Amino acid sequence: MSLSFAYLADRLEAVPQIARWWFDEWGHTRPGDSVEALTSRVRGLLNRDQLPIQVVTILENRIVGVAVLKLHEMFDLYPDKDFWLGDVFVAPEFRGQGIGSALVMRIVEIAKSRGIGSLHLQTQNLNGGLYAKLGWKTIEQTHYKGYDALVMVKQLT
Amino acid sequence: MEDLSPPSQRSFLRRNRAVLAVVATVTIGLVVWIGYCVISENLRLQGKWRVLRLDGSKILQDDGTFEMTLSWSNSLANPFTDPKSLNVSRKVGGGFGTQTYKCIYQWEGNRIRFAEATPGVRRPHSFDPNQEVIFEPGTGGGGLGVGLLERVKEEE
Predict the structure, then answer these.
(1) Paired strand residues for A153
(2) Range A119-149 burial, b when 16+ CB lie within 10 A, else e
(3) Least CB-CB distance to A72: which of B59, B142, B146?
(4) Mutation to test the B interface, candidates A29, A34, A49, A75, most B Cβ within 10 Å
(5) Fewer Cβ within 10 Å of end Cβ, chain B: N or C?
(6) Is the pLDDT reported for residue A87 higher than 80?
(7) Chain B nearest C-alpha distance from A113 (Å)
(8) What is the per-residue pLDDT across B132-145, written as a single tens digit (0 to 9) for each?
């Protein structure tokens, strides 16, 4: 299996698909939002050198997953924690093949290359799932905006 | 010196000298008052603040509580908006330079209630923690922070 990575900013044709993935997965958390509106917002936020940085993974010329390096999540609770890994999504038919892990490691590589000291994430998988396997440590379990989440950190330096 | 302006203009200036003086005085007074309000509000905000969560709890870090310092070099408040608005610049590391956080705030005694947006997101319009300013596709709610600021006393 030969995976490659690209910035979403360089694969504009994938934006509608990725917005659809994100909307189907998390759109219910924002009543009134639409996939069209989300697509438009994503188009306006594509970056390579500024945050958020969206990375897609490609398998046999097909985009099969996405993850984002971003400033702040759960901003109310953790205003002091700047850098987060978020919006990790792998197309359902490609799960269980290590693509999610590869994406996470790619974001970690980018963060390390920028000299970022620690990276955070939140997951609704309360045992840490693949993140725990990849060495992420639990900070705490919390309840945030209607759901339980595990907040984790990866020390990079 | 001979006045070379046309007679009609000379006449207008002569007739309206008092009105012009009043307009000029009011304009200068207004500018001075606006400047005074902006400067005094910014001076009031300057100093070291402890950032608290909305429930008043402290944000603990390895080396103490999470604090921030407001100064002329990193913040600028506008007391004429409703609610009052504040831009705070902060170097975030990672080679991403200095980012600007757009905030609104209100004084509550010696504390400040604030709502701030992640860089790239429009300024919050209220202090409701569930308002829709977020842009993230995920569940993060990353675009909005609502909390309190409590002044750090000198001896702390």
Answers:
(1) A120, A137
(2) bbbbbeeeebeebeeeebeeeeeeebeeeeb
(3) B142
(4) A75
(5) N
(6) yes
(7) 8
(8) 655 555 544 567 88
Alpha-carbon gap: A44 to the closest alpha carbon of chain B (Å): 10
Least confident residue range of A130-139, B50-59, B80-89, B133-142: B133-142
Q: Has the ipTM of the complex gone over 0.95?
A: no
Residues of chain A contacting residue B93, judged by C-beta atoms under 8 Å apart: 82-83, 115-117
**Residue B51 to residue A26, Cβ atoms within 8 A:** no
Question: What secondary structure does DSSP assign to chain B, as a single string?
Answer: ----S-HHHHHHHHHTHHHHHHHHHHHHHHHHHHHHHHHHHHHHH-EEEEEEETTS-B-EETTEE-EEEE-TTTEEEETTSSSEEEEEEEE-STT--EEEEEEEEEEETTEEEEEEE-TTSPPPSSS-TT-S----SSS--TTEEEEEEEEPPTT-
Domains and CATH numbers, chain A: 3-155 (3.40.630.30)
Q: How many CB pairs under 8 A join A and B?
A: 109
Mean pLDDT value across chain A: 92
Q: What is this structure's pTM? A: 0.84
Query: The tokens of B104 are what?
Result: 């609104």
- Domain spans of chain B? 7-43, 47-151
Residue type, B72: W
Q: Do B96 and A30 touch (CB under 8 A)?
A: no
If pLDDT is split at 50, 70 and 90, which confidence band does B118 have?
confident
SS3 A99: helix
